[in-house]
Amino acid sequence: MSAGIEAADLAARIGAQLLGADAAGALLTGASLDSRSVGPGDLYCALPGSRVHGAAFAQQAAQAGAAAALTDAAGASLCTDTGLPVLLHEDPRRASAEAAALIHHRPAERLRTVGVTGTNGKTSVTTMLRSALLDLGVPTGVMGTSGTVFRGADGTDHEIATVRTTPESPDVQAILAQMARAGTAVAAMEVSSHAMVLHRADAIVFDAVCFTNLSQDHLDFHPTMEDYFAAKASLFAPEHARAGVVCVDDEWGRRLAQSARIPVRTFTTDPAREADAVITRIAPDGFGADLRVRRTGGEEISLRAPLPGTHYAANAVAVMLLLEQIGHEGAAARAAIARAGSVPGRMELISQEPVLGVVDFSHTEDALRKALATLRAVPSTRRLIVVMGAGGDRDRSKRPAMGRAAAELADVVIVTDDNPRSEDPASIRAEVLQGAHAAAAAAEIHEVPGRSDAIALACALADESDTILVAGKGAETGQDVGGTVLPFDDREELRRRLAVAPPADSTLPPHPAEGR
Ligand SMILES: CC(=O)N[C@H]1[C@@H](OP(=O)(O)OP(=O)(O)OC[C@H]2O[C@@H](n3ccc(=O)[nH]c3=O)[C@H](O)[C@@H]2O)O[C@H](CO)[C@@H](O)[C@@H]1O[C@H](C)C(=O)N[C@@H](C)C(=O)N[C@H](CCC(=O)O)C(=O)O
Ligand SMILES: Nc1ncnc2c1ncn2[C@@H]1O[C@H](COP(=O)(O)OP(=O)(O)OP(=O)(O)O)[C@@H](O)[C@H]1O
Ligand SMILES: N[C@H](CCC[C@H](N)C(=O)O)C(=O)O
Ligand SMILES: [Mg+2]
């Protein structure tokens, strides 16, 4: 089905006023809210931003072939000046999702959709879900931090290089349309809190949604944890989803289970708690774990988590419950989870001996604590060495908390850089170090500017039976310094320093390389 709707029809359906002579018949075949990616026939969504009004770029969008603009009163004159037909709406950001859905003929209704939210675990759960569904023979796509990949009905894999955890709504709708056209049966996507506030995942009623957990992050964008929670919780409403799965390990999840306006099933890693699925036993096995799970009614089932730690046990159960909600139940679905394999850059095993080397995307205090506690529990671990830092132009208040967590749980902490972006790397390190030094712990603390040198120091300090965790960047392939992204991959760097051979090809089509 090819995209397209006439401007007058679109304006009527989104409740916009249409301005411009001869505007009614303009055919809109795509949409974009960034003038730099507008193509011929697109609706340019000129939105008010935090820095500038998108209408300032309407001329550029018109030159690139836009067929109309969607904007608010503040952007109207700049848009009409271009001569383009203008759809005037009081909330153009919200309207752009609905407009893009209409232009693409509501793609979310042409496949099954799963949305995963929570501070940590979104990429892990969507990736594990994709692996399990592919194993079950279901052509599946994922959209998230690691980019977008999807399998068509003919078995062909496609890749789209998306950058955000949740792309902008016109991109989300265009990608879902591509998936639907290719015959993808299930689309699993990460839904960030930014996405909920900025209406990126509007105009989708997910068949199933999942809440993994909430802990401190993004307090640069959200004024309070309550606001951050409210953004994520808003996904659990009939206009966004039909059914949900909620981890009730933390207080936020318990509140969500009570307040959700859609039916939800709950799960927990705490055997003392009540839930629809309770993990009663986690038996580490290799670099994964065998789980026992108690279901409603008391039935006990077995499930394999492909990665270690209580958090990956929780993720495996989340995947099991999501599969149930989209019609894949029982032993076959559980066997597919067991075969799911690993998640790039998440507790990724780089070497096993003489040093256990692991790369993980822990970039919050909670994730760092989980990763360090998991590695501490590995019987072969003698000393635990962590290389970590915190991102620039992101929540500053998490930096000391991350430093403190590292110093409390590791024996050696090497504080280094992690995408300083526009900030001074030394001042970011100072904030992390302040937390590390404040910890009531005896950890040895080093500051090493330059991530490559930091990883080198970790490898030099490691003796036989020590464990190295390189935290924060996971599968990222670049280091953003002052807006320039320099090639950098923790996994390659650690492999090189430990003189480990790169892994054999995975059987799954790879995710596109993560940007930053
Ligand atoms: C904080 C945040 O999310 N800001 C988003 C917001 O930017 P803004 O309001 O500052 O936009 P602006 O720079 O004032 O520009 C106004 C408008 O002009 C447009 N523009 C601007 C310049 C130009 O040349 N042409 C053009 O059309 C912009 O696309 C925008 O629509 O609206 C823009 C699009 O309208 C988004 O691209 C932008 O995301 C920026 C890039 C961003 O970095 N977001 C990150 C923090 C983010 O979304 N992260 C979450 C993290 C998830 C997680 O970790 O859980 C994610 O989902 O990825
Ligand atoms: N269920 C979980 N609970 C807590 N921590 C987790 C969980 N799952 C994964 N983690 C930790 O969080 C890190 C990030 O995981 P993942 O990439 O899956 O999260 P995300 O929600 O997609 O993050 P982002 O917001 O950056 O997209 C992992 O490397 C791991 O350390
Ligand atoms: N989705 C997260 C990723 C953070 C990754 C970390 N390496 C950093 O740069 O802070 C964010 O944009 O906040
Ligand atoms: Mg993610």
UniProtKB/TrEMBL annotation:
Chain location of the short sequence motif Meso-diaminopimelate recognition motif per the record: 418-421
Enzyme class name: ligase
UniProt PTM: Carboxylation is probably crucial for Mg(2+) binding and, consequently, for the gamma-phosphate positioning of ATP.
Residues annotated for ATP binding in this entry: G118, T119, N120, G121, K122, T123, S124
GO molecular function list: UDP-N-acetylmuramoylalanyl-D-glutamate-2,6-diaminopimelate ligase activity
Subcellular location: Cytoplasm
Residues given in the record as UDP-N-acetyl-alpha-D-muramoyl-L-alanyl-D-glutamate binding sites: L33, S35, T165, T166, S192, R200
PTM-bearing positions, type N6-carboxylysine: K232
Lineage: Bacteria, Bacillati, Actinomycetota, Actinomycetes, Micrococcales
Reactions this protein catalyses: UDP-N-acetyl-alpha-D-muramoyl-L-alanyl-D-glutamate + meso-2,6-diaminopimelate + ATP = UDP-N-acetyl-alpha-D-muramoyl-L-alanyl-gamma-D-glutamyl-meso-2,6-diaminopimelate + ADP + phosphate + H(+)
Name of the featured protein: UDP-N-acetylmuramoyl-L-alanyl-D-glutamate--2,6-diaminopimelate ligase
Pfam families, per database record: Mur_ligase (PF01225), Mur_ligase_C (PF02875), Mur_ligase_M (PF08245)
Domain Mur ligase central: 116-322
Binding-site residues, meso-2,6-diaminopimelate: R394, D418, N419, P420, R421, G472, E476
Keyword terms of this UniProt record: ATP-binding, Cell cycle, Cell division, Cell shape, Cell wall biogenesis/degradation, Cytoplasm, Ligase, Magnesium, Nucleotide-binding, Peptidoglycan synthesis
Highest taxon of source: Bacteria
Free-text function comment from the UniProt entry: Catalyzes the addition of meso-diaminopimelic acid to the nucleotide precursor UDP-N-acetylmuramoyl-L-alanyl-D-glutamate (UMAG) in the biosynthesis of bacterial cell-wall peptidoglycan.
Domain Mur ligase C-terminal: 345-474
